[in-house]
Every structure is written in structure tokens, then in C-alpha cells.
Design brief:
Blueprint: E1 9-13, E2 25-28, E3 34-36, E4 46-48, E5 57-62, E6 68-72, E7 82-85, E8 91-93, E9 106-111, E10 120-129
Antiparallel strand pairs: 1-5, 2-3, 2-4, 4-5, 6-10, 7-8, 7-9, 9-10
């Protein structure tokens, strides 16, 4: 029988210590556990809504959910900028790939307000390849 998850959040085991990573961008490792995203081309899953210890349950606000959520910034971001992850799991402005190139930048949201490094800002959830 096939199962599914309904809702805007997902829960999985933390693959690393995430106690200081609430509002960071999330991805899954090879075991399906949540870890911090490390690249704009990672298969982004959303943003951590809690701060789990390793092997505890990590909660993620899904990127394809509805509504808005919060994220920590890794650089200055303008209002309405499309957001992706930097090498540290913080949100940065997504830069579109060259015309005709295969999309490699994964976008998880769009900033509702502007902010600077380490600000926590609200964003609208969405999932696109840029």
C-alpha cells in the first residue's frame, strides 16, 4: 500500500546536530535524514522549523506547502527576490542560469521583505528550478 503525507510540514530523523539550525534550509542525505543544505543545486526540501539534536525528529516547513514561513539570510536580499541556499544553509538570492542551460538553481521561496546577513525574514513558499 502506498502512503502519503498531508500538510505543510514533514518530519524525519536529523542526520546531524541541528540545535543551532532553526530557520536554515534543509535537504536529505543518502539515508533520507534531514541535514543542512550546502548548495543552490541541492535537492532542497524546505526550512527547519525546529532545532533537533542528531537522531531526534527534525521538522521542516515544506517548500511546496502553502502560505509563508521564516528563513535566515546568508547575504543581503531584496524584497521579492527568489531564494535558494548558500554553502551554509542560509537563504540567498537565486541567480538564474544562462539562457538555454539546464536549470541547476533550486528555489524554495520568494522574500516578502528585504534583509541583510543573519536577518530572519518571512518568505512565500514555492518550488521552481531557475
Amino acid at each position: 500500500m502506498t502512503t502519503f503525507r498531508q500538510g505543510n510540514y514533514d518530519s524525519r530523523q536529523a542526520g546531524v546536530d541541528l540545535t543551532t539550525k532553526q530557520y536554515y534550509v534543509a535537504k536529505t542525505d543518502a539515508l533520507g535524514q534531514y541535514i543542512v543544505a550546502a548548495s543552490a543545486s541541492d535537492n532542497l526540501r524546505g526550512v527547519f522549523s525546529n532545532a533537533a539534536k542528531i537522531t531526534e525528529t527534525a521538522e521542516v516547513a515544506n517548500l511546496n506547502g502553502t502560505g509563508s514561513f521564516k528563513v535566515i539570510l546568508g547575504a543581503t536580499v531584496l524584497k521579492d527576490a527568489y531564494l535558494t541556499s548558500d554553502a551554509n544553509g542560509k537563504a540567498v538570492t537565486a541567480v538564474q542560469t544562462a539562457a538555454g542551460a539546464q536549470p541547476v538553481v533550486r528555489v524554495f521561496g520568494r522574500a516578502r521583505t528585504a534583509g541583510v546577513l543573519n536577518d530572519i525574514v518571512e518568505y512565500d513558499k514555492l518550488s521552481i528550478l531557475y
